[in-house]
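Complex record, two chains
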Amino acid sequence: MTLPAPTQLLVSFAPLLRANGFAAAPDQTIGFVEATGLLGPTGIDDIRRAARALFAIPPDRFGNFDALFNAHFLGAALPQAMPGDDEEVAAYEPTGETTEMPDTPDDGDPGEEATATERLAHRPVIDSPEQALTRLRRLAPSQLPRRRSRRLKQDRTGRLPDLRRTLRDAARRDGEILTLPKRRRQTRQRRIVLLIDISGSMKDRSDSALALAHTLAQAADRLEVFTLGTRLTRITPALRQRNRTRALDRAAALIADIDGGTRIGEALTAFLAVPRYAGFARGAAVVVLSDGLERGEPNTLVAATQRLSRLAWRLDWLSPLATDGTPETQAIQAIAPMLDHLGDGATTEAISDHLLAMADAA
Amino acid sequence: MPISPTIAGISSPDALQKALTTAQYLASPDLATAAYLALALGKPLLLEGAPGVGKTEAAKALGAVLARQVIRLQCYEGIDAAASLYEWNYPRQMLAIRQAGDQFINIYADDYLMARPLLESLRDPQGTLLLIDEVDRSDHEFEAFLLEFLSDFTISIPETGTVRARTHPVVVLTSNRTRDLHEALRRRCVYHWIDYPSPELEARIVMTRASSVAQATADAVVASVNLIRAEPLTKPPGVAETVEWAEAATLLNGQGAPWPDAFRRAIGTALKDQDDITYMAPRLDEILPGEAA
């Protein structure tokens, strides 16, 4: 069966969307064609509105979508390299200043800034990352912090009577109530928000931190992962992929600022400035993996940490420099009072041990 | 579901926009188009947007336009079938069993059934508009359950049978986007993202909603609200806040407070976070609407 040419043009828009990482289901295409017919269409804007509404395009991908739309219906040139992610690239740039890190001509590697402490971080440590990751994967479902949900389930020792069950039993026995079935509130895993510093000073740690994030993403119910550098990137969608190599490849494609400079204060402010991201932190266990070598203004970091700690259920800072729990850098000294825990983030083992122990520490 | 291009006398997005204006809701052309398509295609309308941009108001206005009763289901975490579909009135059933003695009694008669919002809307699909509010607050279990309801519009009650809607009811879902809704749910809906309105539209909204406010005040308030929204705040003021601020300042002004001061004293209606107020305090003078006489 061949479609009339105008319909064909509408229908062929769906494969283009799919090829560029939008989820366009067949019934959405049908809806789009019907909707365009309903509207007239009296102009190109009608078709655009119909497409946006029926393909359910989220607002943060309008730019992407409009480029495709113009290319398909108006014959405009397609911009190079459309990111092909299913979910969304979240590279939030709060102000013009933070997007580009004015790389001050620095003496050598950014990691060398705190020379005295760096030797500490480089001392030989017995790290068995694979073992630690396997252990994390196995224990995470049962050991991660949980909170009480509003959902009820049957439980013999519960406190709330299960009226429905009581009645069913009673109806069977001419209205005699012999037992009183009970229900209690369930628990569910608390959301974990992992903020990973991927700046140059954390170069040695960022790969294993991302591997850890991937393992956690596979094992935990609710997890959000962001990377902090000169900008903020949400990599949660990439980590949903089961295969670690592929997941990390996808994450790497999202991260534009790896091994760059650090403006952790501003990155945290950017995180809090997006209401949706700030919502992720509400009531969550927020874990920051960073050495706290802050090059931006310390006041920004302090203000952001203050807000984050008020928002979160607990805020933990794991730094490769703080192996003995004492604040090493100025920035960390300034924020230490607001943290629930300042600990060792030098090895995968240490980090995963901390994650598993969070529930008890609370 | 058959397509019906004319619903309650509305045959185009423009007509719907006009009708919404009569119902005191000023919709953007995009919103009117999405809402019209949802009605014509018989699909649920999913509205997303920041808090206070008028998602719930849009649903209520739509209910007024269609002359339907709005049935609202407020979602929360742990919401389940008993709170959204139906619940038997257990104490009454128990009493009925006791009183009946040896006689036969049907404890699953309609008398004992308490209809919750979803069942209520199914029983009268022509006369009601179902508003499923803040669906992002519910959990995944409920979302999955909603999926089933929204595709078939049937509810089966094991004790009595299946309730089926003869026609699809009008359904509006709203979400604050605190989490991503499942693709499957979005797919079944006509989607619209409600953004902050343009300054001109927002000024008209203020004039429509707050009858006491003068045109100059409305313009000034909208201008400064837009300046405030450009700042990185915890809670940027929504449209509802703009209206309240204009109303509150007008009230204070009527009691003798001079203009810029009236706005300053009423700032609590626009900024609702101590950090935000502290942040804005040094620059409030330049941002406050001054010459709104």
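Note: Residues 203-219 of chain A form the longest helix (17 residues).
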